[in-house]
Batch of 4 targets.
Target 1
Amino acid sequence: MGGGTTLIGFLPTYAAIGVAAPVLLVLLRLFQGVGLGGEWGGAVLLAYEYAPPGRRGFFGSIPQSGVTFGMLLSTLFIGFASLLPDQQFLSWGWRVPFVLSAGLVALGLWIRSGIDETPEFTKLQTEGGVSRFPVIDLLRTCRREVLTAILVKFGETGSFYMFAVFLVSYATTTLGYSRATTLTAIAVGAFVATVTIPLCGLVSDSLGRRRVFLVGCAGLIAFSAPYFWLLTQRSIFCILLASVVAIGLIWPLVTATLSTLLAEMFQPQVRYSGISFGYQIGGALVGGTAPLVGTLLLAADHGRWRWIACYIASISLVSFIAVSFGVAEPRVAAERSVAGGA
């Protein structure tokens, strides 16, 4: 994942190597995606399985806050880079964060080198319970759980890409906001989310993952239309308010509980493969395509936002139904009891 990211910063331009430049960019993006597919599940399970009893919701939410913290840093960088003359930004300015990411990769590898396997996985190894072909076992014995995990991901990933990616083009080209205003609104929402995601994870340890997630889905459904109405007011205050409520207050309810909710759906033997498979397939189907879908719906509705709001509400409803009927309530009370006994 880190190699693909860093090498993007060294890509030759189209003027230098022609069509090979975009081809190489797509390949490196694929390397990023494949790397992320394996890295996310490992990061989540390290936090989840090392968590003390009764605090798995909080610990499992910490890796999720890395998404908004990274988005905050990238948005701030683009904001600063926008101060460069266009020629300098296009020639070398955009490359800087990709090259600097090598430092984050080295830091991550150094941290990982000092962490042992989790106690739960070590116990599996001792008992000879580690699956030799976990993906095969997963698809043979947990097809219902995998499908549920994919559907659970829909609302969380689709809404995020609409609020944080599609918004940039929609607000600047259709509504006339400046790029600086739009990026600032997203950055403020990301900053708030970086704080609220762990708080939502902590709340889920008391109220239950399922309940918090369902409240978040209901919030996304209810706020999908008001979100776009606020944007169309063409007010700096309104776009800030819309981003803070959507990205900073409602979306954290689903993303903070998503990782723990998925982890608790699978047995340890297939947990890594189960959460990664569901998370990445759901993300690819709905998250990666959301900005394109938003653009198509906007054109089909002659520049109006009604169908886009319906799309966000629909995918959030899919996740609401999937969790309502496909996910059992985690044993939060039992975890707290174990913690008290310890």
Target 2
Amino acid sequence: MKNVIEALQARGFIDQITSDELKSRCEKPIRVYIGFDPSADSLHLGNLLGIVALAWFQKFGHTPYAILGGATGRIGDPSGKSVERIFLDDGTLARNVASLDRFLHKILQFDGGPKPVILNNNEWLGEFSLIRFLRDVGVHFRVGQMLGKEMVRNRIQSEEGLSFTEFSYQLLQGYDFYYLHQRHGVSLQMGGSDQWGNITAGIEFNRKMGADSIYGMTFPLLTRSDGKKFGKSEEGAIWLSDEKLSPYQFYQYLVRIPDADVIRMLKMLTFLDLDEIREIEAGMHVPNSAQKRLAQEVTRFVHGEAGLVAAEQVTEGIGPGTESNLSGDVLRKVAADMPNAALSMQEVVGQKFVDVSTRVGLTPSKSEAVRLIKNGGAYVNNERVSDPAFAFTSANLIDGEYLLLSAGKKKRILVRIEK
């Protein structure tokens, strides 16, 4: 395909577009942006859709812009939120912005195509006084239209309500689009489907200010077939930063994607040709084959080849059926790339599995640990534990230093004995 809009439509990537003219406009190079919220010091799996969208535009010769919300992060976008966000202090926000900036500079260095641009919207929004912003920007927004936005209606009708601070957020994002269009020639803003109201507010503001040929596009949120959002596990968010989630843990989350969702994820989170994805789908009679390919492609994109190698080495080194291969050398190599905990010898030897597993977070409670054992899902060094009273001895320690505890065949924690 020669047009990025056609390519994205074929992959189910497009939810709404403000004008059908965008397709013909994309026959020539344009500049396109997505905003990233610095509410945490790492992006998560849901944010990856935006990064992939920018990559697709770059592959077709368009210039991607990533905008960090150094200013808007002080307010917090109410879209998709049922309660008002807790405001971050200036120091935390600055650290989050710096962390996201480092990550985006690493992942947005796509091979070939126009060079990505990363900006912080505090550079222009931070210069405004309240009076000047209300006079120069606020005067162009009509309260009736703002109240008509779905995100505003939903919050106003909720028990929590909507503060004036959150209500004004669409003015800030609308001005972002205006500034980027005027100063950088950006003509397309993209975002998840919950950003439609903010995006159209920015387009309306641009048009009132005399701008033309500007567009908005949204992509579906990353949700499972049952309607729940992807990007969260029992342990928390699926972070993109290897400082918050190791490549192994990231890889393992993707390997566990349900069959009902894996093909859609391959279309939306990878750059594989659709013909190849159809071949993968046809081969799904081989258990977990599609999930493994998804995990390989996405882990490589986010963590690089080295991250993928580390994830696969850990998976191979501690996987089911590797009892005879588990050694201190193997576990020392994989320790940094998987969940682990350090305990003293006294906290392990002579202690019950139910106590140790709860202490290191493998199970949330002793009763859950007992239930895990009775259901056949408790393992020590890849060997099943069948007795709820099982207690560790020094013979269980690999090289006198390690224990590999597992809940089922997917959740594992490496315990290291402190000396």
Target 3
Amino acid sequence: MRYSGITPASLKGALLAILMLGTVMVTANNGRDFSGYFDVSGMQTQGDLVQVTLHLQLFNHANEDLKSVVVTLVDSSPSMTLRGNFAPVKVWKHQQRINLSQEFFVTQREYGEWMAAPGQPNLVIIFQDAKGNTWQRGAQISRRPLVR
């Protein structure tokens, strides 16, 4: 078989592959904008619920400062029951961490899932970007003793 050089079809295929790779690279940061650690204290069982203080240390991997940040705790069940939120953060600088603590009531099932590795609280972080657009993202966190 004789080599016939670059064909229009192979050129289109190569351009499409480069375009798709560029799209993946641009959106890759959205996969993990927030990471960190959690710990719990003051656990008390009250019937089917557990009263617990949840401590977070979160890191902002986003490429910009975020405004009007609210970190919410949502039950991991299909109902996604809102359990509450931490005190709002006016500005969360990029490449910086924040420390938050708040008391919550969660089901014993939910608490048990947090304590079983690789379980974690289901956090939703709501924020505004530099353009004023509102976004929500999850956070990848793991359990680690935190200084309180």
Target 4
Amino acid sequence: MKEPYIFQSERLGFRNWIQSDVLNMSTINADPKVMEFFPVIATHQQTEAFVKRMQEQFEQKGFCYFAVDRLDIGEFIGFIGISEQTYESNFTPCVDIGWRLAQKQWGKGYATEGAKRCLEYAFNELGLVKIMSVCPEVNKHSEVVMQKIGMRKVKTFDHPLLVSYEWLKSCVLYEIERTSC
């Protein structure tokens, strides 16, 4: 049985993670195309640890990278949500917005729709005032989503967790504040 939805958008349901999501997310994380802009493909154990972190963060903060289902078919398609980031930089700690969807769900507007709804939740329900987003400069699809949801580019920087990966280390930082949403 799936958890009740915390909130919904027109086509998506957002919820906390359940154990059965681990296998589905592991399948998504094993897709080289999905993981193209990450240093490595996540293992099943790494995915399991990620899901546990998201469950704990939701229990503590009321937010995480939410498990997302398509409402029309009730199928898990990946995650969209907000999460705390604490890696070393001049803009952390911060709350960022991110997404990772199964490849077969790409090109349907789910990331944009879901991210807009997550921003509404963050600003209107949680009272957050600023949300950041980061992706490698080469990940133009994610950068387009950031622009579509109203974020503005702040800067380009070398990501401290990606400095060993020449093709990924140069990242863009976007932000949106509550008043501009």
